[in-house]
Known about the structure:
globular; alpha+beta; Aminopeptidase; 5 helices
Amino acid sequence: MLKMIRQAVKEDFGSIVEMLEKAGLSTEGVEEAIESFLVVEDGEENLIGTLGVEIQNRTGLLRSLVITKELGGDDLFSLFQEVLKLSKERGLEKLFLISNRKASIDFFHLLGFAEAKEDDVEELAEFTHAQKLSTVDECVVMKLIF
Length: 146
């Protein structure tokens, strides 16, 4: 099945929010960051994945990864490659992610992420999405420098 990754537009907001709510994820700040989201559509233009970046100055935080079963491993890798490209185009110097899924760590290492140090974590204090995750147990913070 043909899939397309593209930058989200304002008209995608409702579909992205619906997908995030269904996955039990926060939708706070999505509207303001909509142009820093990517969406994946199937051949019939159904939304089957999304991934966003919350940006402050030259630092970004990945957020709101939701995929459906139609999105395979290669598609997921492509989605991350595209979000890295978008981050570079936006002039970001650093990109963080926060995950509580230990099984994902190796995948993120393949993309160039490394575990963040304590000083790095403090830098995320002002990010809306990081504040939401501060109550989640056993989170790992990772960082990529461009």
